[in-house]
Amino acid sequence: MALNRNAYKALEDIVGADNISEEPAVLDAYALHWGLKAFTGNPFGRRHEAVLLPGSTEDVQVIVKICNQYKVKFKALSTGWGSMNGPGGEGVIQLDLRRMNRIVEINEKAMYAVVEPYVINAQLQAELMKRGLTCNIISAGSNTSALPLTALMGSGPTSNSTSYNNRNILGVEWVLPNGEILRTGSLGSGVGWFCGDGPGPSLRGIMRGYKSPLGGLGVFTKAATKVYHWPGPEVVPVEGASPGYTPKLPDIISAHYITFPSWERFTEAGYKMGESEIALACDKLPPWMLALNLTENAREGIRLFSEIRPQTVDKGISVLVVIGADSQREFDYKEKVLKRITSETGGEYLPLVEEPATRKKLIWHRVRATTGARETFRLMLSQGASFGSCDSWEFAVNEAREGARLKQKYIEKGLLVDDGVDNAWGTLYEHGHMGHMDELYLSDPTDPASKQAAFTLMEETTRACMEKALGCPQTVMGDRGHDLFGPRMNNYHLWVRKFKKALDPNGVSESTNYITVPE
Amino acid sequence: MGKKEELTEIVGSQQVIVNTHSIEKLSRDESFVCPTRPAFIVKPRNTGEVQLIVKWANKTLTPLVPISSGAPHFRGDSVPSVDGAVIVDLSEMNKIMRIDRKNRVAMIEPGVTFGALCPELEKEGLRPNMTLLPRPRKSVVGSVLEREPVLMPKYHWDIIDPLACTEVIFGSGDLYRTGAASGPGTIEEQWKSGEAQKSHAEPMADWCRILQGAQGTMGIITWATIRCELIPNLEEPFMVGSQNLPSLFELIHWLVRLRLADECLVLNNVSLAHILTRQRRGEYERLRDRLPPWILFFCISGYEYYPEEKVSYQIEKLTDLARRAGVKPVKEIAKVPAQTLLKIVQKPSEEPYWKLRAKGSCYDIFCLATYDRIPELIQVMNIAAEEGDCPVADMGIYLQPIVQGTSYHCEFNLFFNPANAAEVSRLRNLSQQAIKSLMDNGAFFSRPYGTWVDVVYERDAETASVLKKIKAILDPNNIMNPGKLCF
Ligand SMILES: Cc1cc2nc3c(=O)[nH]c(=O)nc-3n(C[C@H](O)[C@H](O)[C@H](O)COP(=O)(O)OP(=O)(O)OC[C@H]3O[C@@H](n4cnc5c(N)ncnc54)[C@H](O)[C@@H]3O)c2cc1C
Question: Most CB atoms within 10 A, among A458, B20, B253, B390?
Fold first, then answer.
C-alpha cells in the first residue's frame, strides 16, 4: 500500500526530499532485523511505506499532525536495536530520529543529562565520565539510545547503583499522538528539566510502566535522565584491539565473581550486599555469559565455560560484584565487607576473575555494557527470554529459580543448549531495594524439535507467571499478551486502552507492540 | 431515603457524622481557601465500605473529599470547593497491615500516622524516610501522596519514593491495585512468591504517579506500601553554619552524590529556632539571633558491618570535601548539639505542632528548584515580603535536596497570628504576588494548592489538557474532590 501522494508531498515539504524515501532498497534496509531470522526464518520484517528523517521536535510535530490528517500511522526509531520499531501492518511510516543526536545539557551539579533520541549510551557515558559521572546503560549494549524511554525494560549491569530507566526519568519533551507537544513537570512550566512530575498528578504515570510504550504512544523527542557518580578516571585508556582490549583502571575499582552453595545463600548474600551499599554493580551474570563475555569467539567461549563449570555451575549460583571507591580506605572497607558477606553465606571467589587483567576487562565490559550481544547471540542460536518483571530481590530470585526448574528437562533431553541450566541474568536495583531477573534459553533455529522446545518452554514460563504470582513477563507485548495478563491483573489492559484512545483518537501512533484499541 | 440514610446503610449510623462542631471544623483550615461546609462526614472502616461510598456518590452525584490526617490541615485540599460534599474520613482505617524487615517495606492503611508507624518500624530495625517534623497525627499515606519532601535524599531515587504500591478505589468506583500489587495472584499469593509490593509500576502504566499529587481528585487509597530504611548502628550528625548558601550547596552536592549523608537538609535561623524552642517568651528570639543565617544539618551513618570503620572513612572524606567547599562541619552551633537536632528530626513534631507554637498558625509557600536558582528565589521572597509588609526577619526557610540532589524543595514558612485580620490579609496578598514572581525566577510548583492552582496551570496548558483526559477516565462523573487542581 503506497502512501497517499498528497500525504507524501506534505511530509516531503517538512523534511525535504533528502530526508524522505520510499525506495524499496532503503525500506528493506529498515525492515532487516538481525534477530528475526531465528524466530521466523526470515531476517526481513514488514516494510514501512516510507522512511523519514526529521531533524527537530518541530518537524516531528508537523509530521504527526499530517499523519493525523491523512490517517497515516507512524512509528519512531531511535537506535533500532530490537525489532520493535518495525511496523505491525500496512500503511506505517518510519520516523528515524538519527538526526536528533545532541546531548542538550549535562548538569553536573544537579546530576542529570538531557538527550535527544539518537544519542547513544556510549556517547553520553563518555561525556559523563569526563565529569566523574556515569549513567544506567541497558544490558543490550551501549549502542542503544540514552533516552530512557526506548528500551523495553531499562535495566542494566550497574542498576544496583544506577537504578533503571523508569525511575531515572526527569523532564520529557513528548510529541503526543495527536501532534500536541507535552512537556512534563518543570519543563512544562518553562523552568528547566529537573523534575518530570506535576503540576499535580504526574503524567509519567501514563508515559510508561516498567516497560516502555514501544512506539505506541507518540514520539519522545528529548528527555532528562538522572546520572550517577563514577569513581573511575575521566578517560580510561585501553590497550589491545577490540574485543580483546584491556583498560587501565585504578586498583580501587575491583570485581569478584562469587558462587554461593544454594539459591537461599545467594538470596541472602544479595540482601546483605544491598543493605551494605558496597557495590557499584551486583549483577547476576551467569557462568555461560561470563565465559562468552571474556572470550573472543564462540569456540573459546564454550571452552572457557566448560573450564569454569566445575567451580561455578556445579557449585551453585553466581553473581558478579563490582566495587568502586574514591579512596583506598573506602575501597578497603568495601572489600572487607564483601569478604565477610561471602564467608557468612558460604560463597567462593572464582580465581579467573581474581586475575588483574581479566578482572579489569570484565569491569570495563560491565560498566560500559559492551558485551550484551556477545553474551547472548554469539552462537547464532536463537535466544529466548522469560520472566523479567521486578519487585523484591527474593521475588526476582524466585523468577530465576522457576525458570531454571522448567528449563532443565529440555536441556537433559538435548533440546535446548546446555548453558548450565541457570542462565538467568538479573540485578539488584538501588542497593537491594528491588531486583530484576530474566531467564534466558538457547535453541537451535535449524532444528524443529529444538525450536518447539523453546516455544513450549515459553508457554510454560508464561503459565508459571500467572499461576505462581511471578509477575507479568517482559515478553508480553501487544494485544495478545496484554489480553492474557490483563484479566489477571486488575484489567490493566482496559485502562491502558482508555488512555491510548484518549491520547491517540485517530490511532496513528502504530502500536502493535504496545496495545491497540478496537474501532 | 435521604443521603444520610443511604450512607448509614453503608457504614452504620455511628460512622456518619452530622454534628455541627465536626462539620464546622472541616469547613475551613489554616490556609486561605474559602470555607465551605461539608454535608456529612463519613468514616469507612474497610475497602468494601469505601467502594460502596464511591459507587453511591456516582449514583447520587455527590462530591467526595477524602482525608486521612487529623487536624490541623494547612493547604486547603481537604476543604470542599463545592457545597454538598461528603468528607470521607479515613482515620479509622489505621491498621499497620505488614512490616517486612527483609524487604524494607511497610503496608499500611491511610489512617496510620507517623506517630503510630515510627515505633512499630523501630521494633523491626526500620524507619521511614521522614518528612521534616510532621505533626503526630499526619497520615503517612497522606504525606507520600502529597509528595512531601523526605529528609534522606540518597534514598529518594525517584520523586515517587517512598510510595510503592497502593490499593485504590478510582472515582469510577473500580477497585485497582497499582504496581506489583496488581498481580498476577492475590496479595497473599504474591507474598508466597517473594513479592513485597515494592515496585510501583505495572507493565504499561504507573498509576501510582497519577494518584500522587492529585489531592484526592482521582480516587481513594485504601492501603499503600511504603519503602523504609534501616536504622543505623552508628550515627555522627554534623552542622555547618554559614552566611553563604552556594558553599553549602557545593558540600551538599558531594554529600548526596557520594552517598555520604543520610539525613541532609538546610534550615535558616528562623525555622531552626522555631523547631528548637517551646513557647517561652524571648527564647525563640534569643536563639534565632544567636544562630547563623543558614544551618546545614546532615548525618553520617554506619550500619551492620564495621560501622565505626565506615563512619571513619566517610568523615575523612567529608573533611576533605568541606575544606574544598570552604566550610566547617561542627558538632554544635549556638550551644545546640547536632545530636539533639538529629533526635528531633527523626521523630514527628511534639505537640503543639512546631509551626503553630509561635503565633498560632503558619502559611507555607513551597516549590521545587535547582540549587543555582535558590538564592534568587529567596531574594524574590524577601522583596515580596518587604513589599507586602510582612517581617522578613521572621520568615522561616527550609531547603531540602530531593531525588538524589537533582533539585531542592524550597519552603518559606510564614508564621502568623490567625486572629489578627490585618496580618492575615497581608499574607494572603503576599502569597498571590509571590507565586508569580517565584515562577518567573525558576520555581516549579509541582504541588499547587488552593489559590496557586490557576496561576500554575495557566503556564502549562498542555499538562492541564492531558490531565483532564485522564481525570475523565478515572473519575467520569467528577465526584472526587471537584474544584481542586484543574478539574
Ligand atoms: C542482547 C540483548 C540484551 C538486551 N538487554 C536488555 C536489557 O538489559 N534491558 C532492556 O530493557 N532491554 C534489553 N533488550 C531488549 C531490547 O532489544 C532493547 O530494550 C531495545 O531494543 C532497545 O532498543 P533501542 O534503544 O535501540 O531503541 P529502538 O529499537 O530504536 O526502539 C525501541 C522501541 O521504542 C520505540 N521508540 C524508539 N524511539 C522512540 C522515541 N523517540 N519515541 C517514542 N518511541 C520510540 C520504537 O518504536 C521501538 O518500539 C536486550 C536485547 C538484546 C538483543
Answer: B390
